[in-house]
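#structure-requests
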Amino acid sequence: MKISRSNFAAISVTMIAILILFQFSNLSAIYASQAMKNANALPDVSITVNKTIQAPNLLSTSSYTTALIGSKSNWETMIAEEWCVYTKQPYYRFPSLDAFYGNISKNCKLLIVNSYVIDSSKDVNILARMAKRGVSIILTSLPDISTFRSYPKLMELTGIRKIEADSYYTNGMTVYEGFLLGGKTTYTDLKKSIPYFLLESGTKTYISASIKHQERKHIKNEELPPVLWRNYYENGFVFSVNYDFFQDHTGLGMLSAMLSETNSYNLYPIVDAQSVVCQNFPYLSNENSDRISQQYFYTSKAFCENVLWPDVVSILGATDDKFSGMIAPKMEYSSSAEISQDAISFYFKQAERITGELGISGDQMESRSFHEDKIKYDSKTFKQLAPDYIFTVFSPGSMPESAYEGYLKFYSKDSILSNIQTLILPKEHEHSPVLSFYNTKILAMSYICDGFSHTDEEDLYLRSIETALGYSAVSLDFSRVLYPSGKSDDWTTLSRDMARFLDTYWKSFRKAFEQVNISQADQKVRKFFTLDYSSYRRNDTISLSITNFDEEASFLLDLTDEKIVAVSGGTFIKAEKDKYVLHATAKNVTIEVTEDLTEN
């Protein structure tokens, strides 16, 4: 049979189309297969705690550079000790100034003191002698007003000219330019009663309180109640903190900022990682659909797939933030609702498309007794529906440690938590460090802020952590959306809050630091804990030497009216005036600086 030219062409086109479709189906199958595997799951953790520099490596009884004065259990001392670990400062902790004075290291350059240890003229005299030696002193809080009245030398040491009021209710505070990252900021909601001091000339105030009706009361700006200031006494700087910054990790950035004010430069390691974490999203079940349909006219499953997912991807895409989703398989483990294979396939494929990552959430909406049931249910379900996916990130949320610690410590092979490498803890979780090792292999990182909220207190906390570590992890808890309790939990409102936070409040930090997912942040933190460094300055050249260098390392360089003109062995980004993020690409880095008298 003879085939006409036109029929031959039609048959050829049809065969080519079939071939293309066949190839596409193969590619789709491969793509789906890849989506059901975790690209962030490493065969083994390369950097474990024994390869890093932790507190035991830095404790030194005779060659410490920083002395901490205060009780081991005192929160101010714990914050200072944590800061020493991050900045690699050899340190030792003393219960009193008298104990310290009997064992002074010739290398000691910094004294961090709790207020309660200053209760005698002898203590004040020790501080004065250390300042005369050129040692910088940081008082993380101030003694009672009666102590100042009893020992006038303490007022001289701290630069206080007069006690204007034992207690004065302030109307907010202002953090001045150049102290913390983020520039000058006035906080109108941080109102508190603090002692009101008038300072001597020659002191420098970094944070001052606001006063209601200041002009009417004829109070000059330099006479506003000081919150954090520096005095130069004899040969040393004395910093005084007249606020409770050191009752949480806000104190970390304050320490770094104060140390920067003691020298012509301050160069210290940072993590350089900014992450966004969607807690309890993706959501794989169809619970609470009656409530969701009343508010959004969708079932829970349809609302998550057709509204939440596109909106989240769009918002993160607009700011170039990475997606890290902590899956909530269910929220009600007493219900009969089951999760489906198509829900798992949908989110795993979608996450793969945007190069996002998926972890597991520990939250659920029921009583504590269901936490154990949750782990067992999740383990069984994912073993059946996604047997090749290895979860490496766990965000316990409201789950108590007693419910999951056994699974993490003993690596139960049948558990969904058996391969966890990264633990993301709630902000200020039981006074745990911002960054630490949970055990030999598992790294613990804390959330820094709530992406659905932004109060003055939260902003100051964020800026302080960014200053100290160049790190933040933003938590977006979608249980609020899935189980709304009022108008403030409506997705229209929360999505607007999320976009505003990422595009406005986080904007300056996005410019300075790298946007990464949680697993990438984990790797950066492990390298951060591994390295050690030393630096010195000769004229306009700063030399940095890094030990345990592993491909890359990030540092924050704080200058005073200077700018970087060249870097050998690395690159740099200007975060803001006088502050630079340095990316070392070699273990020896040279930085050339010059005078910079510009305003911005």
